[in-house]
Amino acid sequence: MNNLIHQAYEGEVYGIAFFSYFENVDDNNEQIKLWSALVAVETLTAELLLKHLLKLTRRYEFKTAEMTEKGDKEAKKWSHLPWPELMLTLSQWVEPYEIKYRDWLLQCQQQHNQENKQLEPIFKLIAEHETAIYQCFKAELNQQDGRAPLTSFLDKYSQA
Question: Would you kindly state where each structural domain of the chain is located, as residue ranges?
């Protein structure tokens, strides 16, 4: 299960780069606030996952530069899209991950052993962070404030 947490961590590094790119090139103040909140969600999640991974006796390889470059490159490919199309593209892109991370949480909950019981809060974090991002894009598609689910997530996990 720790391999999945490592995989999620690398996805956070990717996401930080991806959303940071938009935060740095966007010229709309409201959109910049959204990108900033997305970066904050990814950063907080990455920090909490890394804190867990560094406590383990097994050492993982962290491909930070590679994942950062990959996130930056992908963002550049989509940066030309108009806002509604970008939000639709991002919601469709995030949806399978949101489902996958909820499935990971369910798997963790269904395996009744001591290790998984201890890992459950981490898998809940992973699932809830992706759900917040997905809800953000869905809200923006409905011309609502996408920052609300992100702020809720940050409020909940900032004390962790």
Answer: 2-157
Q: CA angle, 131 as apex, 130 and 136 as ends, to 5°? A: 100
Q: At 158, which helix (H) or strand (E)?
A: none
Question: Is residue 160 classed exposed, middle or buried when 0-12, 13-18 and 19+ CB atoms within 10 A define those classes?
Answer: exposed
What is the rounded CA–CA span in Å between residue 55 and residue 136? 32
Cβ–Cβ < 8 Å for 119, 5: yes
Handedness of CA 78, 79, 80, 82 (dihedral sign): positive
User: What are 111-127's pLDDT values in tens digits?
Assistant: 877 777 889 999 999 99
Residues 41-94: tens digit of each pLDDT: 999 999 999 999 999 888 888 899 999 999 999 999 999 999 999 999 999 999
Cα torsion angle, 47, 52, 57, 61, sign:
negative
Q: Give the pair of three-digit tokens for residue 35.
A: 């990108």
pTM, two decimals, is 0.94
Using DSSP's 3-state secondary structure scheme, residue 98 falls into: helix
Residues 68 and 160: their CA atoms lie apart, in Å, by 25
